[in-house]
Design brief:
Length: about 550
């Protein structure tokens, strides 16, 4: 039979387990491995910063439904990629980090970039292990992928030492491993299914909250059927957006605060009562709110607010159960209720409150005016990446999603700097879809050099930077500071020409000082076959619509 190298065995095992993409940076000791992976049919994307590569890997995992890879050099390379592990863990998304490591026989000697990588990775991971024998590589890859994918998804780590990468073993000695199937779709207790429907029937002001756990479980068809049959008002979480279309008549997304505050029963589907949902507590929620909770993770049930009915299982399978149970009931939530009227009126008044900003053509643009043209231009099937403070928050309210898994943003961890890595992952895994990234200038800057990656691979990402010259906006004068003048800590260069950066690296850029020129630039960008960046300097006093209560902006 002959011998096989650790590098080849690793590449074959990853490919066998559905790891079709690796994002990374080569160097010691993984420089040869990336090329071997390419030979085995894995798409390798060479990036500029391990942080961005690790972000790309878990966005690709979420979008494809299998953990995808991040490859780094030893020591500092692995440490940089911990950013992605932590973000993946917080968002419950799968990924596999493969960290090069100094050779096992030098352990403890102070080798080049030697680090206790497995120990350090463990708190951010569901599974972290070193590979100690070439012939057991398929075993470890199987373990890692299974842990990443089954139950609540999350990141995993494999330490890949130099002497394993370059080691050899006899083909007949290889420990073969089974291909990890799709995750088991666990069903909820049938009594709990009936209890959940009884609870919904008894509610006066019910609300369904669709989270990104449902998007992950590919539950969109079941959820659409459930909402259509029950006629329940719903809202999508920030990345649950599109699982039910934002433009559905039953969406109460435009009255989000009122819906959360006044609902007497919330059916939480694949979403958590964490900071994004204000812990399910007053003043954001009704003090006596009843919670029906669907989650794959039993430990999540009852977090922050006791759960009245727990549906523990896979989102797609459990909503399917609910739909079948509905066959035996005539019930749906009535068309005319005070609750519906309240929500409709609140949505209308929210729209009216921002309309003057949408209509304001003065230069430089405000956020809402810029979004007006972006929304008119945005294709329905675009994967939207939103990042930044106001840029993301306002974008979430203005840019609709009609498809599930078509929005990526700072997520559960509130991570800034994920945008370009996410955009690259979206473009590589979805070559047939428009990829649109709308970022603030601060968010763009974290991994701005990844535009070189986009240009090198000709990934046609349409970037828009809403540029207010600062973290949360420029304060003071927009002129450069006088000598000796102290700069506010959050200030960035007002009017910085990120568009010229893209031009200089081989893409196309626009600088839009008057919002009346924005639409034409957007059309030209879409027509351009390659990465583009439209840089829109904003009025530095532009912000969100005034909120009713201070705690709404906390
Ligand atoms: P959001 O930010 O949209 O509110 P979170 O990330 O807070 O979403 O919550 C997602 C929840 O979905 C997590 O508690 C996770 O355990 C759960 N989840 C993950 N996979 C599934 C699945 N297949 N079925 C149901 N729930 C899932
Ligand atoms: Mg800014």
């Amino acid at each position: 039979m002959g011998t096989v190298s650790g590098a080849t065995l690793m590449a074959r095992s990853l490919k066998q387990q559905g790891v079709d993409y690796i994002f990374g940076i080569v160097g010691f000791p993984v420089q040869g491995f990336a090329a071997v992976a390419q030979k085995e049919g894995i798409r390798y994307v060479g990036m500029r910063n391990e942080q961005a590569a690790s972000y790309a890997a878990h966005a690709a995992g979420y979008l494809t439904g299998r953990p995808q890879g991040c490859l780094t050099v030893s020591g500092p390379g692995v440490i940089h990629a911990f950013a992605g592990l932590a973000n993946a863990k917080q968002n419950c998304w799968p990924m596999i980090l493969i960290g090069g490591a100094s050779p096992v026989f030098q352990n403890g000697m102070g080798g080049f970039q030697e680090e206790r990588q497995v120990e350090l990775a463990a708190p951010y991971c569901k599974y972290a292990h070193a590979i100690e024998h070439v012939h057991r590589i398929p075993y470890y890859v199987n373990q890692a992928v299974r842990h990443s994918l089954f139950g609540r998804p999350g990141p995993v780590y494999l330490d890949f030492p130099d002497d394993i990468i370059n080691g050899q073993c006899e083909e007949e000695d290889v420990t073969q491993a089974a291909t990890v199937p799709e995750p088991p779709r666990t069903l909820a207790d049938p009594d709990a299914v009936e209890a959940a429907l009884n609870a919904l029937e008894s509610a006066e002001r019910p609300l369904v909250v669709v989270g990104k756990g449902m998007a992950w479980s590919r539950a969109e068809d079941e959820i659409r059927e459930f909402i259509e049959r029950t006629q329940l008002p719903f809202l999508n979480s920030p990345m649950g957006k599109g699982t039910m279309p934002d433009n559905d008549s039953l969406s109460v997304g435009a009255a989000r605060s009122t819906a959360l505050r006044d609902a007497d029963l919330v059916f939480l589907m694949g979403a958590r009562l964490n900071w994004i949902m204000h812990y399910g507590l007053p003043p954001r929620f009704n003090e006596n709110v009843r919670i029906v909770q669907l989650d794959i993770s039993p430990e999540e049930i009852g977090t922050n607010v006791p759960t009245e009915v727990a549906l523990v299982g896979d989102g797609k399978a459990v909503v399917g159960q609910l739909n079948r149970a509905l066959d035996n009931r005539q019930w749906f939530y009535p068309a005319e209720t005070t609750w519906r009227t309240t929500l409709r009126e609140k949505a209308e008044s929210n729209h009216a409150a921002v309309q003057p900003m949408i209509d304001d053509d003065s230069a430089p643009s405000n956020y809402y005016r810029a979004y007006k043209d972006i929304v008119d231009w945005l294709p329905d099937d675009a994967i939207i990446i939103g990042e930044g403070a106001n840029t993301m928050d306002i974008g979430r309210t203005q840019m609709p999603n009609v498809h599930s898994r078509h929005r990526l943003d700072a997520g559960s961890y509130g991570t800034m700097g994920v945008g370009l890595g996410f955009a690259i992952a979206a473009a590589v895994t979805n070559p047939d879809k428009p990829i649109v990234s709308v970022q603030g200038d601060s968010a763009f800057g974290f991994t701005g050099m990844e535009i070189e990656t986009m240009i090198r691979y000709n990934l046609p990402v349409k970037m828009i930077v809403l540029n207010n010259g600062g973290i949360g906006g420029h304060s003071g004068s927009t002129e450069p500071p006088a000598p000796g003048e102290i700069q506010p800590p959050g200030n960035l260069t007002y009017g910085a020409r990120y568009d010229l950066m893209v031009e200089g690296l081989g893409g196309k850029g626009w600088y839009i000082e008057d919002p009346k020129d924005l639409r034409a630039a957007l059309d030209e960008a879409m027509a351009h076959d390659g990465p583009t960046l439209i840089n829109v300097p904003l009025n530095i006093r532009s912000g969100r619509k005034p909120q009713e209560h201070a705690w709404l902006t906390q």
